[in-house]
Specification:
80% of the residues lie in helices and 0% in strands. The protein is an all-alpha fold.
């Protein structure tokens, strides 16, 4: 299990490194470089719109790679998704600016961002199933939390590079070439991830499906026809976590450096400290999920975010580094309380024959609902000189929506399900056997 968990963690960390490198660049430099004919606000909105394209592609990636995972195995998904995202990310770092090639520059940026999202949409399903389907029942939550540590690790890697460049380069040097360095580094990281995953074994449950001839012929069709309500609920449940995470890591960075005139290096350090806090808490909260169940932590996390969004905005508005870090850390604590256990929770909601498709589509649908629009909407709502309370309202509403979705989903912890046999809902019938 440690070897399997490391392979999953390495892959998700590298994939999310690629994703976050783009998000940070969108917050800091892509607007003026690729949309110079727009006003500063319009350029920021356009840059965040290209960031959102990756989220729109993620459900398509989950469908494509989910089909491969349910028909041909989880292992091909691990390798193919990582290779696609790595190549697209390196290419982003090579795209000339608008001043060099004109309108072709943003067009290429959008295309490569779409390919990034396509690869990441397949990555999560393959990584969590590798751990969830190998893990022992009583520690499934813990082992499945390792892929969930990939996003904070990837964020810290990407922003660590940006922070080092920001601290050592002038603004002109950073805008000219410094922002490209994190994208070029993705190539080396992708090769490292492929090497770590080269010996990954197929999961026992997929081998059993193959041996008994019970693989789904059309996984997406089966998932939509039989479990459309479950797909919508899981997408709605995941939305708040994406919204809160990207509000903290992307929008707040742009807002603090643009509106509040905080130093870019200081704000990056504040956000990185909060994300490090999130990463350290992930396995600890996953252990609680193995003990108390998945659903209670998800309910608590979404409720906590609903309560914290106004304090988050108020603390960010102070522009005091310690208070800003506190606000960001509090928001990510609520978010990770749920996301620490979803690596086990979502796969357990779906039967093994459609699990790679169902879990990945539900997870990435939440990315569209919560992640694609949040930097864009928050930037528009924060325009003006007053406190951005509209952002707090938006994030609170999303958190309450996710809370309602979690309330309608069943518990899936195998031991707890057995003690309440016969009392489940229609969704519970799709839950995986222990």
């Amino acid at each position: 299990m440690p070897r399997i968990a490391l392979a999953s963690l390495a892959g998700t960390a590298i994939e999310f490194y690629d994703f976050f490198a783009y998000g940070t660049a969108a917050a800091l430099v892509l607007g003026p470089l690729f949309f110079p004919v727009f006003s500063p606000l319009a350029a920021s909105l356009a840059a965040f719109a290209t960031f959102g394209v990756g989220f729109l592609a993620r459900p398509l990636g989950s469908v494509l790679f989910g089909h491969i995972g349910d028909r041909h195995g989880r292992r091909p998904v691990l390798l193919g998704s990582l290779l696609l995202t790595g190549l697209a990310t390196v290419a982003v770092g090579c795209v000339p600016s608008y001043g060099a090639i004109g309108i072709a520059a943003p067009v290429l940026l959008v295309l490569l961002r779409f390919l990034q999202g396509l690869g990441l949409g397949g990555e999560w399903g393959g990584a969590v199933l590798l751990t969830a389907e190998h893990a022992p029942e009583r520690r499934r939550g813990l082992w499945s939390s390792f892929p969930q540590m990939g996003p904070p690790v990837g964020f810290l890697l990407a922003n660590g590079v940006v922070l080092a460049l920001s601290a050592t380069l002038s603004d002109a040097q950073f805008a000219a070439w410094g922002w490209r360095v994190p994208f070029w580094g993705a190539g080396l990281l992708a090769l490292t991830g492929l090497w770590l995953r080269r010996t990954a074994e197929e999961t026992p449950q997929f081998r059993a499906l193959t041996e008994t001839g019970r693989r789904a012929e059309a996984p997406l069709t089966e998932a939509v026809r039989g479990h459309w309500r479950l797909l919508l609920l899981t997408g709605g449940a995941m939305a708040f976590g994406y919204a809160v995470f990207y509000a903290v890591t992307i929008w707040s960075l742009a807002y603090a450096t643009g509106h509040l005139r905080m130093d870019r290096t200081v704000m990056l350090a504040c956000v990185m400290a909060a994300v490090l806090f999130q990463g350290l808490l992930t396995p600890l909260l996953a252990v609680l999920g193995d003990r108390w169940g998945r659903r209670p932590l998800c309910l608590a996390g979404s409720a906590a975010c609903a309560v914290w969004m106004f304090p988050f905005v108020a603390l960010l508005r102070t522009a005091d580094p310690l208070l800003v870090t506190l606000g960001c850390a509090g928001a990510l604590l609520g978010m990770v309380s749920a996301f620490a256990v979803v690596g086990a929770y979502l796969p357990e909601l779906y039967a093994p024959r459609i699990r790679c498709t169902g879990a990945a589509v539900g997870y990435n649908l939440g990315g569209v609902l919560g992640g694609a629009l949040t930097p864009l909407v928050a930037t528009a709502l924060a325009e003006g000189s007053g406190p951005p309370w509209g952002v707090a309202v938006y994030l609170t509403a999303l958190s309450l929506t996710s809370l309602a979705c979690f309330a309608l989903l069943p518990e899936t912890h195998p031991a707890r399900v057995r003690t309440r046999a016969g009392t489940g809902t229609g969704a519970a019938e799709a839950a995986a056997p222990a």
